[in-house]
Q: What sequence folds into this?
């Protein structure tokens, strides 16, 4: 039996001054790949995401999701001795990540330019709301506000009922782009020796994900319609209710699928030559005539029979699940997607990362208590026990 592969980012050291979702999501993925991530938190309280709720063994569901495998260093960055500790950490770091408020990093000498001058090998990754420069560089930003500014709320929900996307999608988008940017910068440094800072804004990240409706509206002349759970520009693509009361979503993507859908699912081959439904734009234009036909078929048969017809026709479909059904989904349980992670309040199940590398088991470490690693890290930096006690007594650090 061959030995397991070394973790891909083993030996990479990351210091992160992070809060909430975007930066923690980026650094958690680095930790899952074996990087050492030192999460710098402020005493008391730490990352304010710790207080969002207390549902996972006493921990916030956000914090549990985003912070496994990290080391928590609680240090007061407003105290000169606390800031000096962070600068000392950078002496051996590869990456500095932060999503601090506008201007905060520069005031502490931790912005990209200052770090490049003092620690030229460090890759600095900065996450901002609207960009490090430009007219809104000084504006605070949070996920829902970005959903509004980036136009996402204009294409989500139904007429008269605009809806927030149910997850922190702007933060997640920024975290994903920051993660890929850091990997790219690490590769560039390894191959060329050139160190390039990474910069991502929540606004730019979500606008990138909004590109299709943006282009549709700009060049098509009209914005996408609010269509609830239906697709605004493809039909039929959305939910239908079976005789059992279950909601089944289906998606017809091309002409052969439409033909099979008419023949096998609707048992109405005459619809294939119906001019109202000949092409996808026709079906979208006549959606209010098409959907009652599909609803009549779906509502007249049991869920299993409806899904069987969809399978025979080769039409993609899905059930409308809630989070409890998701937790027991056969694709998760049948593929061993759950792992046990330790938290300060006890063990809890967490999902393995979505990217699987052959022969490499993801490094899913513990969720740290606030300041759980403060003393260890300070000892590594060369502080004596007496000096460490002094820092604790002065409130510079905690743990």
A:
């Amino acid at each position: 039996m061959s030995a397991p592969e070394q973790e891909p980012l083993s030996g990479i050291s990351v210091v992160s001054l992070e809060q909430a979702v975007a930066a923690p999501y980026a650094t958690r993925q680095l930790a899952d790949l074996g990087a050492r991530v030192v999460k710098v938190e402020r005493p008391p309280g730490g990352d304010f995401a710790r207080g969002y709720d207390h549902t996972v063994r006493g921990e916030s569901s956000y914090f549990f999701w985003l912070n496994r495998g990290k080391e928590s260093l609680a240090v007061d960055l407003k105290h000169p001795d606390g800031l000096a500790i962070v600068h000392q950490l950078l002496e051996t770091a590869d990456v500095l990540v932060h999503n601090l408020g506008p201007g905060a990093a520069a005031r502490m000498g931790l912005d990209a330019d200052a770090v490049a001058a003092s620690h030229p090998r460090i890759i600095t990754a900065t996450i901002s709301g609207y960009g490090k420069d430009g007219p809104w560089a000084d504006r605070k930003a949070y996920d829902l506000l970005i959903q509004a500014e980036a136009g996402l709320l204009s294409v989500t929900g139904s007429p008269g009922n605009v809806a927030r996307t149910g997850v922190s999608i702007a933060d997640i988008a920024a975290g994903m782009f920051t993660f890929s940017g850091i990997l790219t910068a690490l590769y560039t440094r390894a191959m060329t020796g050139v160190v390039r800072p990474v910069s991502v804004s929540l606004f730019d990240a979500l606008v990138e994900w909004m590109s299709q409706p943006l282009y549709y509206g700009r060049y098509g002349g009209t914005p996408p319609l609010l269509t609830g759970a239906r697709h605004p520009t493809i039909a039929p693509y959305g939910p239908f209710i079976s005789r059992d009361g279950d909601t089944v979503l289906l998606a017809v993507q091309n002409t052969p699928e439409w033909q099979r859908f008419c023949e096998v699912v609707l048992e109405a081959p005459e619809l294939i030559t119906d001019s109202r439904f000949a092409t996808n734009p026709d079906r979208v234009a006549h959606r209010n005539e098409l959907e009652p036909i599909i609803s009549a078929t779906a509502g007249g048969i049991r869920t299993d029979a409806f899904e069987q017809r969809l399978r025979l026709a080769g039409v993609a479909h899905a059930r409308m699940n809630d989070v409890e059904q998701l937790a027991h989904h056969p694709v998760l349980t049948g593929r061993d997607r759950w792992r046990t992670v330790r938290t300060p309040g006890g063990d809890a199940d967490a999902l393995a990362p979505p990217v699987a590398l052959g022969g490499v088991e993801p490094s899913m470490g513990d969720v740290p208590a606030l300041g759980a690693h403060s003393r260890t890290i300070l000892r590594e930096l060369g502080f004596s026990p007496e000096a460490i006690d002094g820092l604790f007594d002065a409130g510079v650090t905690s743990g």
